[in-house]
Structures are given as C-alpha cells and as structure tokens.
Amino acid sequence: MLEEFDLPKEIVDREVKKMTMISPTNKEVQIGQTLKDHEYIGMVRREVLDDFLRKRASENGAQLINGLFLGMQLPQKKGESYVLTYNDYNSTEGASRNGEKKTLEVDVVIGADGANSRVAKDIGAGDYAYAIAFQERMRIPDDKMEYYKDRAEMYVGEDVSPDFYAWVFPKCDHVAVGTGTVIDKKGIQKYQQGIRDRAAPRIAGGEVLRVEAHPIPEHPRPWRVKDRAALIGDAAGYVTKCSGEGIYFAAKSGRMCAERIVTNSEKGTRMIDEYDLKEYIREWDAKYGATYLVLDLLQKVFYTTDAQRESFVELCEEEYVQTVTFDSYLYKTVQGNNPIGDLKLGWKTLTSLWKNSNKKPDEMRTLV
C-alpha cells in the first residue's frame, strides 16, 4: 500500500517482521522467517494515516467539509442531481457543537462512510453480517514494549473469541490489545478480558490510553451500485475473513471506482450512469472475488473449535504455509502455485485436524 498509494514511511509506527501465533493451549509458533529484507507488515494509527490522506486530498484540489452526513434525496428522473443534507461544523453561523444544516447538489455519490453507511441505507443496498472489533490501546513498561518493537501477536481460542482471533499489535509508544466476534457480540467484554488474561505476562502493568470499538463487515453487501451512487471500502463490505483487514481494500476500491468514473465520464464531459459504475464492481469482483472466497473457507475450517485452532497454529510452523500466508497478505492476492506443496499441505491439514479432534487437549502452557 505504501508503494501503490505513494505513502511516506514516516506514517508507519512499526515495521513488523515477526508474528507469533498462539494456540488455545498457548503453544507459540514464530512466523516471519520467509520475509525478504525489504518486506514487513506496517502498523499505523488511523488518525495519522487519515490525516495525511485528508491533507493530500486538499492539496490536490478536494474541498474538505468537516461535517456529519445526514442523508440524501435521490434523483427522481434522469439527469437530476443528488441532494445531500449534512451538518457543517466549520460554519461560523451555526453552533459549533451542533453544526449548521446545509445541502449540497452532486452528480455522483461514492459511499465511503463505513460499516454503518448511511449512503448504503439510502440506496437500499441491503444488510450484511458484521463482527464487532474491540481494542484497548495500552502503554506498557519499556522492557515489555521492547519485546513488541517489531513483533505482533495473534491469539486463538474459545476464551478470546468464538469465531475470530485476538491480538496484541505494536504502535508508536503503546500496544493495541483487542479481539472480535460475529456470533457473540454481547460477549465482547468477556473475550476482551480473555485476551487480557492470556497476554497478562507480556502486558502486565499496562495503562489503558484509549478504548475503541468498530463494526467490521463479514461479506460484501447484496447491492453496491444504484443509479449514480456506489459503495466502496467497509460501506461495500470489503473486509477479508481470517485477517479482518480492510484498510488496503478501502483505498483500492476507492481508486478503482474513481478511475472508472474519470474514464467513463471522459474526464467529466459526459454524465455517467449505473452501467458505468457497475464496471468498477465487475473489475473488483474479478480481481479479488477468489481471495474473499478462499479466506471465508479458511475461517470456517480453522476458527470453529479449539481443536481446529490448534491445527491452524501447528500448520503455521510449515515454511510453505508461512510463505503463502505472508505473500497473500502483503500482496493481496491468494498465493500458492505449487501443486506439490498444496497437496502436501492438504494432507497435513487433514491429519492434523483428525489428530487434534480425537485426542485429549494438551495442558495449558505458561507464556514467558
């Protein structure tokens, strides 16, 4: 993403080159040795990334409005404008807390307004299943922070999430400790306490700086285009299973949609229509549809029971798995073009699942 979107490395808090996978019994598998010298997973804070992108957009001619989008009036006949209603917080006339209600007429609407998208609601895009992600940003003692300087941790287990994973991710001067779930949203506090307990030896003495919670889409919406309105990013449901990552896909879908508008409108000289925007959807599905299907399958296979999660962590010891996993994550397309490697991995997966499903679980290990 840094290269593709010309982002400065200064916005990256940590360059993660080590990933520790931790099973339900606290078996630890270290992955990352297959990374090349220049490869890493960039850890950023959204407030830093978003601020940079917003300022760059302004420098390139975008008109920024600090406001709250309230809804829109759809065109009643061909060629009519969309009328957006919003509270403008930059207005000098209205109260700064409540803003001043204003309207804006536009030809095209791109809904980039997140999982609870009001644009999606207004165009009748349909609902989708979603997860709740909850995390605490925590400042931990320096000696413990040193351990996380280039390392991220992923924990799996019924105690930290019934269908996802929990994490400790390093940021600039603190760590983000969190978890997520689709099937038991009301139990999110219980699972957050679970990751706090599991990671306790490594985050002991931590001070909570900030608490965050966000909905995360589990699959694309039934409809992502209507007339001259289109959805991108979380509003469209572009978040991958297994990893729960959506930042790159939000940026990529925004660019693909914008490029299609520029091309099909002949740089703004003709009005586009629904067919033009659906070209962006077709291009997106052709490029990333397989990725979403594969990751959905993997989540169903490995994130259901603790026995399956033990197998998942075991398989992460395989160098081939690490190569495929990191390459798929870093470059956003499903890797694995080695038929022999895929066959061996398939056999090891089946034997590991059978073994762990038919034996007494190992004793709980203690993290050092």
UniProtKB/TrEMBL annotation:
Group of enzyme by EC: oxidoreductase
Name used for this protein in its record: Geranylgeranyl diphosphate reductase, chloroplastic
GO molecular function, a single term: geranylgeranyl reductase activity
Catalytic activity: phytyl diphosphate + 3 NADP(+) = geranylgeranyl diphosphate + 3 NADPH + 3 H(+)
EC number per UniProt: 1.3.1.83
Keywords in alphabetical order: Chlorophyll biosynthesis, NADP, Oxidoreductase, Photosynthesis
Pathway(s) it belongs to: Cofactor biosynthesis; tocopherol biosynthesis; Porphyrin-containing compound metabolism
Family: Belongs to the geranylgeranyl reductase family. ChlP subfamily.
